[in-house]
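User: I'll paste a sequence; please echo it back and then give the predicted structure.

Assistant: Echoing your sequence first, then the prediction.
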Amino acid sequence: LNLFDIVHTPGVAADLSHINSRAKVQGFVGPDQLKSSLEGCEVVIIPAGVPRKPGMTRDDLFNINASIVRDLAAAAAEVCPKALIGIISNPVNSTVPIASEVMKKAGVYDP
């Protein structure tokens, strides 16, 4: 189980590693470790981005989360192109098509 974020993942990975499981848990932090976090992955779940805050429009949320999903999808397309990609970043009806277009552009789209 590889965890990636821009902050705090080593601590979360350490906490999760105490679960009685055969899974090896690793934490990766920052853009320099993004591709390493995806090596060998068969499933990639993208819950990235910020939650919608009071007063924030869907457009505001999209403007923040779209680039995050785009960058993560591009790295997955390069490092683990056969992985199943699950996107739970809001607004989902806008972020999923972004990831699809990134995969198409990379020549690895497989619906």
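Residues 58-79 form the longest helix (22 residues). The helical segments are 9-16, 34-38, 58-79, 92-106.
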